[in-house]
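Readers outside the structure-tokenisation community will struggle with the description of the input data as it stands. What matters is that the chain and its backbone geometry are given together, residue for residue. For illustration, here is how one protein appears when written out as sequence plus structure tokens:

…
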Amino acid sequence: MLEPQPTLIDIRSVCRSFPKGSGEELLVLEKVDLTIRSGEIVGLLGRSGSGKSTLLRIIAGLVAPSSGEAECRGQTIKGPPNGVAMVFQSFALFPWLTVLQNVELGLEALGVDSDERRSRALAAIDLIGLDGFESAYPKELSGGMRQRVGFARALVVHPDLLLMDEPFSALDVLTAETLRTDLIDLWIEGRLPIKSVLMVTHNIEEAVLMCDRILVFSANPGRVAAEIKVDLPHPRNRLDPVFRQLVDQIYARMTQRPEPKAPTVDGIPGSGVGMVLNHVSSNVLSGLIETLAAPPYNGHADLPVLASHLQMEADELFHLGEALQLLRFAVLSEGDLTLTESGKHFAHLETDGRKKLFAEHLLSYVPVMGLIRRVLDERPSHAAPAARFRNELEDYMSEDYADETLKTIVSWGRYAELFAYDEQSETFSLENPS
């Protein structure tokens, strides 16, 4: 029997909360447990807002847990621990420094002398495929090359653990695939000067392609909902039936309805005034309904197939599916999206009919829409400031989520012609009060 590998990171019952506008605390992470051992690539997979990046920042020593224990090699994490490096989504390069100077930065902070700095930086640049670009500035590089600089800068310090926060999401599909493949090849060959990788992603196929173990996060608050082992040998083939089965399994797990803790409307949790609405365009929703209603789907689609067909990330498709489910135009469950009778009816209506049906469903199933319409109907002026509703939303959610929800309300309400909204004065009003 193989000896267990040394433990690098041990997270026990970690919680993290942030203050809301109302003065209350917003719980982002709840009782998260995570162990990372030497020799593995671990993925944190979940929806936007599920706390994955917050957990990564706790491990990086950039954020302290509100409660629970976070340890690196048996020592409590207080500030950035030695032997941990991070690659960001946004490249985070200094534009006034050359590639070589950007890569040397981490070593300079460690007090490494100039000759060794240069030698190690050139080796890292060569390893990551940027040989010949040492004197280039970031503005002269493509997005993929800039992200390679980010990797070289993290690897040059020879960290035990490499943290990656959605490192491929800002790249085009082909560039991201090339960089993923290159990194996995270097990992398999033992050429990366690291012991383990922890990566945050919301791309399901990316997680199955790269990781040995995947922790699926649920949201509000973020907690580990499932742990999935990926025993497929590298290099992995996306068309392998076992690969596809794992992807389907994760889609199904991520679209399971949680047991509601709070009052629900028709079994959909959090459907009261305090529900966070992710901003998705009514035009995109209409287009998705049309796609689902037409062949080859005929009202029912497998999410991995639909994501591939539409060239959408899983996270984006989940948002759309949940919006359709909230409006009762579709049901999102076990990795499938199925149109309801109302959804099928919507697909065959002309523009005015669609707007009318959309308005009926907004008032019936999105309580905050009904609240806004009632306030506008009851006021003699038939107008109300957005702040009136933003303050109410902030009793339930963070300021950022309140802004996102309000943006969605304005977009959907305008499409349905339920009200007008003036951007300058931030005021809701009725165009034709009855």
Remarks:
- The mean pLDDT is 86.
- The chain has two domains: 7-254, 282-429.
